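Handover notes (outgoing to incoming on-call)

Open items:
1. DNA primase small subunit PriS: sequence verified, structure written out, both below. Nothing else pending on this one.
2. Nothing else urgent.
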Amino acid sequence: MREEEGLIEELFRSYYRSMRGAIYVKDVAKREFMFRGFDGKVRRHISFKDLEELRRHLIYEPPLDAYYSVSLYERPEAEMEDKGRIKADLLFDIDSSDLRDEGCERGSIWRCKNCGKSGMGLSPQRCPNCGSDRMEVNHWLNERCIEVSREEVRKLIDVLTQDFGVDPDWILIAYTGNRGFHVRVTEGPLTLLGKEERREIAQYVMASGLDISSFIIPDGRGFRIDQRNGHVARALKYIGEPRVSSRDRRRMEELLKSSIERVRVKVDWMVTMDTGRLTRIPNSLHGKTGFRALSLTLDEYRRMNPFKDAIGLPAEPEMKVRIKMKVPAFRMRDESFGPYEEGEERILPAYAAVFLILRGRADPVEGNYLEV
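DNA primase small subunit PriS structure tokens:
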């Protein structure tokens, strides 16, 4: 391993050594663990007898990414078909990369794999040069990404508590350490559901296949909105017209359709239906940012700022990096950085340098040394 790559691994190791007591996973002995190493290899179907064994592993073999299963198993170290699932948290993945928000993507860089045309900002669905849909994106992370993801979390919590009757104490919110959040239902009957039932819940949450016209029903000489569906009831606050005349039915349908789009929750349904999914270990570091994955209360997620609250790496030692992709202006720990152009060399605090390196925007320059 190059000395500069080893430097980041040692920073991760030092983090896990100092944060040993903050690493906590409930029911460790019944969980499967998975790690992605600095060598790029993924290792899964790992089990630990207790929390201390897990903590020692993170220190002596610091991973680039660390995960544990949302399921409890009788034999977590076995292959999937032999694990013996007991129950599984109901997991929802909210990632700003899927929300296609222009503000969030302002610093992202896209490239067509077919012809090589590139640009900044929200990536087109098809290349404007050759028409190919083979697009690759180096996503940026900014405050707007967290803001739009946080709004989806808020909407999801409304659906879970109002439509499914989930006790708020059973809901766990986690910042992933990158561009979004995981929301889990950890107790209650929903944790016993199979894949098909979980898919149906995800489809409901997303308002997928919702027939808008069926909720506009005759009411004397006009029409009114049937509010028995939770999404429809929440959409009414954006409409303000529960009843309309017969000639306004089409306008009501369009209003309801656009309002449903505002209240539906954008989640990855394939994640929710998969009982074999894994989620990040709380307080572990994310391999694309160096930020901490944080468990959050219903109050904390509303005000959490990852550029202050999730930074896990120190300022020292400062590191010299060479910019290989344009970097927008950004702030970390109330200090401003950038913008930087391709080819520039900069000396940055370790947490900012690692952030750029892990995002693929910079390379370490030879001569970085970590004194431990």
